[in-house]
UniProtKB/TrEMBL annotation:
<feature type="region of interest" description="Disordered">
    <location>
        <begin position="89"/>
        <end position="121"/>
    </location>
</feature>
<feature type="signal peptide">
    <location>
        <begin position="1"/>
        <end position="22"/>
    </location>
</feature>
<keyword id="KW-0732">Signal</keyword>
<dbReference type="InterPro" id="IPR028002">
    <property type="entry name" value="Myb_DNA-bind_5"/>
</dbReference>
<feature type="domain" description="Myb/SANT-like DNA-binding">
    <location>
        <begin position="14"/>
        <end position="50"/>
    </location>
</feature>
<protein>
    <submittedName>
        <fullName>Putative alpha/beta-gliadin A-II-like</fullName>
    </submittedName>
</protein>
<dbReference type="Pfam" id="PF13873">
    <property type="entry name" value="Myb_DNA-bind_5"/>
</dbReference>
Length: 121
C-alpha cells in the first residue's frame, strides 16, 4: 500500500473517531477527546473478545454479558474468531465460531472507500 493511501486512511479514521466522540457528547455521554473514545472502544472490544475466548480449567461458567454480546455483534467475525486456514478450521474443536455460531454467520462489515465517503456528504 502506498504512503498516500495509508495517510488518507488514517485521516479518515481519525475524522470518524472525532465524529463518534461528538455524537457521544450530544446524546449525553461524558466529554472525552476522540483519542480517549477510541481507547475506550479498543479496551471494551478487547474485554469482549476475552469474555468469549475459550476458557481452560475449572471454575464457574461465565454468565452472559449483554454489553459484551452487543460489542461482539458489531465486530467482524475475523476479529472475534481470528483468521483460520482451511486445515485449521477442519481440525478446530472450538465452538465459538462454528457454523452454528452467530459470529460465524455475521458478514464482515464493509468499509466505504474514501471516494464513497466524499460523495455521501
Amino acid at each position: 500500500m502506498n504512503m498516500y493511501l495509508i495517510c488518507l486512511t488514517l485521516i479518515i479514521l481519525n475524522r470518524n473517531w472525532k465524529k463518534a466522540a461528538a455524537v457521544l457528547q450530544t446524546v449525553g455521554g461524558p466529554v472525552r477527546e476522540w483519542t480517549m473514545v477510541r481507547k475506550k472502544w479498543r479496551d471494551l472490544a478487547s474485554k469482549a473478545k476475552a469474555y468469549k475466548a475459550p476458557k481452560t480449567g475449572g471454575g464457574p461458567p461465565v454468565l452472559e454479558d449483554p454489553l459484551y454480546e452487543k460489542v461482539l455483534g458489531v465486530l467482524a467475525k475475523e476479529v472475534v474468531c481470528g483468521i483460520l486456514s482451511e486445515d485449521d478450521m477442519a481440525s478446530s474443536q472450538e465452538t465459538i465460531c462454528s457454523d452454528e455460531s452467530e459470529y460465524a454467520s455475521k458478514p464482515t462489515p464493509s468499509v466505504p472507500s474514501p471516494v464513497e465517503q466524499t460523495h455521501h456528504r
